Structures are given as C-alpha cells and as structure tokens.
C-alpha cells in the first residue's frame, strides 16, 4: 500500500506500512475524512516528515494530537498556520524561548522554520475529528509514532528528544538514552506552566549546547 510520505522515511518505515494494524489505521483515517471534518488537511497528515527528512533529524519534539479547531493544525505538533491565533501552549513555548535564548516573540506560530532546521515536530496521533480532542487516539497512530521514535533512536545518534508532560515522557521509553540526549519537563499548557513545571526549563539553550558539543549546527529558535 502506498503511503504519501517523504522518501527517506519510506526506507526506515517500510516494514511498518505493511503491518495489519497500519493498514487498518489508514482505512479508518480514509473513512473518517470522507464522513467527517478532520484535521489537518489530508495532504498535511505527514507534514512533519515532509519538512524534516530522516537524515536531517537533530531534535524531536513530541505532542499529543493535532489542534481540533478550524484552520489550526498543519501537521506539525504545537504549530499553527499563518494568520491563526497562537494557542496557550504555543504562547508559553515562545515565552520560554524569549527568556531562555533571547529570541523575540515571532509574528506567527507556524513552526515550519524549525522543521526545516532538523526539528521533527511529531504528534503521537496524526489526525483528529473537528472539535473532538483525542477522537483518533487508540486507532493505531500511537503504535506508528512509537515505531518512528524507535527508528530514530536505533538508526541515529546524538539526537535531542524534548519530552514535555507525562504523555510525551511515556513515549520516551523507546529512546536509547546512552546515545541520545533526553530533556524532560512539564507541559507548556497553562495548567502545568502556571504551577511551575514549564517555565525555566531552558530546553532551548540546553538543546543548542548539546548540538554544539556533538558538532551539529544549532537551531535558530
């Protein structure tokens, strides 16, 4: 079965696409998109992989599922399309970046610019029904994204994994911590951030320090 995903990822995930669960997942997604309004757009479901080739991955950020409001999701976790108001979690990410590395607030919340620098912005679940958070969870996406994380962990070294919140930390079980850098903190959502679990984590400067130490180019946040 052909999956519309960037070529470098096809090679490392080829076996996954042939598994029974993945075929069931794709059938479920096709049916959902035909019957209901779903996000992101069909051609953006695998956008995280399109913008960040396998060989270019230096940093992995793990989200939960796409934004479910109209026009928000663009296939990159935490990111929103140009012209869309920034959700609270994204605002808190930019606040931390500003205090950590001094980068001023951007004019939009589109994180394509990070993805093009080697940041894989991976949601655990890649699709969602409009206005129904979590509606496509436990249909197979989590198994697929576990396989993505494991493929990166196994086939690469010196990747920085940013795990924010309990959900992302659980996904971290697939990471070989002896050859990668794993940074954890609370989630940037207001509930967590306002309790002191997010601000001050300095993940953005720590990421660049590690990339420098391992002779990789740093990220312009």
Automatic annotation (TrEMBL):
SUPFAM superfamilies: Uracil-DNA glycosylase-like. It catalyses: Hydrolyzes single-stranded DNA or mismatched double-stranded DNA and polynucleotides, releasing free uracil. Keywords: Cytoplasm, DNA damage, DNA repair, Hydrolase. Its main location: cytoplasm. It comes from the Bacteria. Residues 50-211 form the Uracil-DNA glycosylase-like domain. The active site is at residue 65. The keyword DNA damage applies. It is found in: Cytoplasm. Its EC number is 3.2.2.27. NCBIfam families: PRK05254.1-1, PRK05254.1-2, PRK05254.1-4, PRK05254.1-5, ung. PANTHER family: URACIL-DNA GLYCOSYLASE. This is Uracil-DNA glycosylase.
